[in-house]
Design goal:
About 35% of the residues lie in helices and about 15% in strands. It is of the alpha/beta class. The chain folds into 2 domains: about 250 residues, TIM Barrel (Alpha-Beta Barrel), CATH 3.20.20.70; about 60 residues. The strands form 3 sheets. It has an 8-stranded parallel barrel with strand order 3-4-5-6-7-10-11-12, surrounded by 7 helices. Strands 1-2 form a two-stranded antiparallel sheet. A two-stranded antiparallel sheet has the order 8-9. Helix 4 runs parallel beside helix 6. The two termini are about 30 Å apart.
């Protein structure tokens, strides 16, 4: 069971709200944490298009950096007053440090929901035994979840994970059962292994199996949701309780308006903005980044990585694309965009895969990590990253 690149959203019966502790999320749509992407400005854009509906999670925050009150980290956990509930995703390898970070969030009222990252496949994380490498160590996973749930008090704790390290080391069913036993509120499963990174197609069958395996709590599906139709189809085919959308909204924050319409059973069309509307969103995105960072130039520079995603499919020459990707001011960005043929309609084939697509990678792990799935001795003393954002 795999996802097709583009499926027009069909009218669907209204689905049940996703219950995350005391928070009712309707429609059951979650913005996936993405390093360097899902900061406050991008969450604002997505939330505006959704009409405030859904759940929008912060970038990955490392527990060590949070406990040490790293300046960058403290900025990353800043939420706009309109963000409710406030959701923080934490990365941690040491149960004690994770416990301290969670208690800090709960006691200081820094968020309303905590998500734990066990899905990141990048080498700098897995080589320390973190992210998608960690669930292989069953006892370590249990210890971290126990500390987190205990320290969170009334705050709901959820987790996001992958199928496993590779096809020979699948962990998601064991991890799901441990999560239920330790009081985790919901689980999101990306239907790929760490070795796949973002290549190939997501295994939606695994999402269905996990839902059958842990019927006690909500299961959310993640992977290859490029349109609202894909999201509705995932729920229908897997029985999952909601969806987590990541790369599908890169350069497409209006996807959340499609998702809301599809899950509410409304056939009021799919957002297909002309280039003029896309350009306006691009400028607003860059403006929000500058206001958030406190420096217009730095905001525009941070926005550069989004340019190709927004312009995908439109007739924009390579030289102009390069020029827009090196702008350093809002005036320069707006001026360049105004030179484009802004009346271009939404291009056919503009949907589909975006972002990283590499796959079949060797997963970098601590030495001896795979010898014993229950022994935690392989975790190094410097496993806790001291910076946030993935």
């Amino acid at each position: 069971m795999t996802a097709s690149p583009v499926v027009p959203p069909a009218v669907s019966p209204v689905v049940s709200p996703l219950q995350v502790g005391p928070h009712s999320v309707q429609p059951p749509v979650v913005l996936a944490p993405m390093a360097g992407i899902t900061n406050a400005p991008f969450r604002t854009l997505c939330r505006e298009f959704s009409g405030g509906k859904g759940l929008f999670v912060s970038e990955m925050i490392t527990t060590r950096a949070l406990v040490e009150r790293n300046e960058k980290t403290m900025q990353l956990i800043h939420f706009d007053e309109s963000e409710k509930p406030r959701s923080i995703q934490l990365y941690g390898v040491d149960p004690a440090t994770v416990g301290k970070a969670v208690r800090m969030i709960a006691e200081e009222g820094l968020a309303d929901h905590i998500d734990l990252n066990f899905g990141c496949p990048v080498p700098k994380v897995t080589r320390k035994g973190g992210g998608s490498a960690l669930p292989y160590k069953r006892n370590l996973l249990r210890a971290i979840l126990r500390e987190a749930v205990s320290g969170a008090g009334e705050l709901p704790v959820t987790m996001k994970m992958r199928k496993g390290i590779d096809d020979d080391h699948i962990t998601y069913l064991d991890a799901g059962r441990i999560a239920v036993e330790e009081g985790v509120t919901a689980i999101a499963l990306h239907g790929r292994t760490a070795a796949q990174h973002y290549g190939g197609t997501a295994d939606w069958d695994a999402i269905a199996r996990l839902k059958e395996h842990v019927p006690e709590i909500p299961v959310l599906g993640n992977g290859d949701i490029w349109s609202a139709g894909d999201a509705v189809r995932m729920v229908r085919e897997t029985g999952c309780d909601g969806v987590v959308v990541g790369r599908g909204c890169l350069g497409r924050p209006w996807l959340f308006s499609d998702l809301v319409a599809a899950f509410e059973g409304r056939a009021d069309g799919v957002a297909r903005p002309a280039l003029r509307e896309v350009a306006d969103v691009m400028v607003r995105h860059a403006t929000l980044l500058g206001e958030w960072i406190g420096d217009e130039a730095r905001g525009v520079i941070d926005f550069r990585k989004h340019v190709a995603w927004y312009l995908k499919g439109f007739a924009v020459g390579s030289e102009m694309r390069k020029r827009l990707a090196v702008t350093s001011s809002l005036e320069e960005l707006r001026s360049g965009l105004d030179e484009l043929e802004l009346d271009q309609p939404w291009p056919v084939g503009a949907d589909g895969p975006r972002g990283r697509t590499s796959g079949n990678n060797r997963v970098v792990l601590p030495e001896g990590w795979l010898k014993d799935p229950y022994d935690c001795a392989g975790v190094s003393e410097d496993a806790e990253l001291d910076t946030s954002g993935g």
